[in-house]
Write a structure and sequence with these properties.
- By secondary structure, the protein is mainly alpha-helical.
- The chain contains ten helices and seven strands.
- A three-stranded antiparallel sheet has the order 1-2-3.
- The relative contact order is 0.09.
């Protein structure tokens, strides 16, 4: 306690809070042995349930959502309608060659104006999608919506669970349910943010693009561009509903799935993504044609294949401009 340099000490029913001189660091100290034990248990629960590098929640969020999966999935809604471009070697967004060619008979000034606005739109969408990806992080320094901070309520609930358990197995089951309850509270927060904040902000970005294009008074002359924007707007709203299902807890089931069907589904999904148009994946049927997997194994395989395809597309050695990946 000497190191805490106590200026103010407030005693509550279960805790003592120490505040330092600058009032910038508050330390919550358990006032009883049982709460000290609960604090240690909770720390270990978070380490195992959340931070474990092999099967923790953060591992799942990293591999199945944050690591390009969410970003790529939502960006495709715009890419397939040719209204997004990539960042070039000069770190600036590339020109939209598709619509420059479509409107090549317009005055060069108008074509440049449209092109620059689409490049700006690409940057706006990418920045916001990257921001959304951070929602799926474990909360640290106000980044991430998955919050496992040890609050007064959390430790009191853990104390209640510990004292009510009838056996070790009963305690374990209750602790797992306790951690899932905390996780579900965070997923509901993200689900609400996707359905409200993300949808509203994304539509604002799209509608701003439409308004700026309308200011050129080109009307039906750019019908295809306006229609592409309209289609992308509708699709991104649909995809938000799909993304929220990613937050559902995976339960065991008795169904079996053919590995070949799983691989083919992954291949088809990847090949249909415009972002990877310079990469082609082919499934070469071999010994796994009759292999079957359960639901959890199937999800793991799909996630692994998707990340393998993305990494191969980014870092694979190319013999030509098109990279071919064979699944054997």
């Amino acid at each position: 306690t000497e190191l805490l340099n106590k200026e103010e000490i407030s005693l509550e029913e279960n805790y003592i809070t120490y505040t330092n001189e600058e009032d910038v660091q508050k330390v919550l100290m358990p006032a009883t042995d049982i709460l000290k034990i609960c604090s240690e248990i909770y720390t270990q629960l978070v380490n195992d349930f959340v931070k474990n590098g092999d099967f923790g929640l953060n591992k799942y969020l990293s591999t199945e959502i944050r690591h390009d999966v969410l970003f790529t999935h939502l960006r495709t809604c715009f890419e397939k309608h040719n209204i997004l471009t990539e960042v070039g070697t000069d770190k600036n967004y590339e020109s939209n060659s598709y619509f420059r060619e479509k409107y090549r008979l317009f005055s060069p000034e108008i074509v440049d104006e449209i092109d620059n606005r689409l490049r700006k739109f690409s940057e706006e969408i990418d920045l916001y999608l990257k921001e959304i990806t951070l929602w799926f992080k474990i909360n640290e320094k106000d980044v991430g919506m998955f919050n496992f901070t040890a609050t007064t309520h959390t430790l009191l609930k853990l104390k209640e669970i510990s004292l009510s358990a009838n056996s070790f197995d009963d305690l374990f089951d209750k602790l797992m349910l306790f951690m899932w309850d905390i996780t579900n509270a965070s997923t509901e927060k993200i689900r609400k943010a996707l359905e409200e904040e993300f949808k509203e902000k994304t539509i604002d970005i799209i509608d701003s693009l439409t308004q700026d294009l309308n200011n050129y008074n080109l009307n039906d002359s750019i019908y295809e561009l306006n229609n592409s924007i309209k289609l992308a707007r509708g699709q991104i709203i649909e995809e938000i509903d799909l993304v929220t299902t990613w937050l559902n807890r995976v339960e065991e089931d008795d169904n079996q799935y053919y590995l070949l069907s799983i691989v083919n589904s992954c291949v088809t999904m990847f090949n249909s993504t415009v972002l990877h148009k310079d990469t082609w994946v082919e499934c070469i049927e071999k010994d796994f044609i009759s292999t079957q997997l359960n639901h959890l194994e199937s999800r793991a395989i799909m996630s692994t294949l998707h990340m393998a395809f993305i990494n191969a597309s980014k870092y694979g050695k190319r013999k030509s401009s098109k990279l071919e990946i064979n699944v054997i």
